[in-house]
Prior knowledge:
Immunoglobulin-like, 6-stranded mixed sheet, mainly beta, 9% helix, 2 domains, single chain
Amino acid sequence: MIRLITLLFISCWLISCGxxxxxxxxxxxxxxxxxxxxxxxxxxxxxxCLEAVxxxxxxxxxxPTSTASHYEIKITNLKTNLTETKPATTSPTLINLxxxxxxxxxxVSKSTKTNQTATSKSWKFYFAGPGExxxxxxxxxxxxxxxxxSIDAENGQFKLTWKASDNDTPTESLLFEIYMGEDFTxxxxxxxxxxxAEISNLTVPVQSGxxxxxxxxxxxxxxxxxxxxxxxxxx
Length: 235
């Protein structure tokens, strides 16, 4: 009996003094969230970019986010459909582009803490660039409607007016092609019906409640230039 009690005591002691149970593994750290998408600032959406830096550079700017450590700017030429990706650490940043082309652009937010990214909205613009050389007409100055103006049509029509000049060609010898439509990209790519004029105005049909975009191509005997793209709304 004493022997049995002794054996039980030793068994209990061995169990109580055995190795401690292994601790459960620590949970894997939660992945970092994607950085926030930025708000674009410049060039404004659906406008022509009139100001160039050092002849052919465009200034891109956006509102930085504290959750991103760096960015990528994606710029698509709307005519060729080719996209360039440019790294950027700060806003604004300057990028070389081809004058006389329409583009769309987005900014991708990135972080060194995660592989996840966030993409901004996509904006479009037309890079009119600086004025042409003296061998080409000066880009037409759009007078009416003004950019963003709301206009009243008369019998479903409105007169577009602009101002044209050429350093070596009389104004009365210039010809004009007007491109107008409801799609900014098509107007920028001259992918709308071509309206011709021999003077600096043209009456066009419009519909109430719609927004239109328009530009003027000025031609002399040798070359041509393009105006900015303006938008207007019909009341």
